[in-house]
Specification:
Elements (H helix, E strand, L loop, with lengths): L2 E6 L4 H10 L1 H4 L3 E4 L1 H10 L4 E3 L7 H10 L5 E5 L9 H14 L3 E2 L2 H13 L3 H9 L5
Parallel strand pairs: 1-2, 1-4, 2-3, 4-5
């Protein structure tokens, strides 16, 4: 079971809900996290159980970032709106930087999300389970 975070900016929430609904069978076997409204919308449209953090601008991105910093997150799907300025842009950049530092796959658009979820479905994330097995303090 992998830990997966789902984040979507306001104009990308419908796209995220549609995406997760289409791949619900893949996501159901994993531990899911999301920022506030995104998690609420996904749960309203699927049977998935999601641990919800605060809304992104209120600290949800940082809460997910804390899990990334501890190498407790395995995959992030963050559908960003590249055409809209975000008031919490420094938090977003910090989260993406942490993903790069820890080597956590992070999709920021639907095309990359599709590739990562198909890889997840095929079992191509087995290397993350090795990280958990050999790193003390990670379940």
């Amino acid at each position: 079971m992998l830990s997966i975070a789902l984040i979507a900016h306001d104009r990308k929430k419908d796209e995220m809900v549609n995406f997760v609904t289409a791949y619900e069978h893949v996501f159901e076997g994993h531990k899911l996290y999301a920022t506030g409204t995104t998690g609420t919308r996904i749960m309203a449209n699927t049977k998935l159980n999601i641990h919800r953090f605060m809304s992104g601008p209120l600290g949800g991105d940082q809460q997910i970032g804390a899990l990334v910093a501890e190498n407790e997150m395995d995959l992030i799907i963050f559908l960003r709106d590249p055409l809209m300025a975000q008031p919490h842009e420094p938090d977003i950049i910090a989260l993406l930087r942490l993903c790069d530092v820890q080597g956590i796959p992070c999709a920021t658009n639907i095309a990359t999300a599709e590739l990562l979820v198909r890889a997840l479905d095929r079992g191509d994330f087995a290397w993350r389970e090795l990280v958990h097995k050999y790193k003390p303090g990670i379940e």
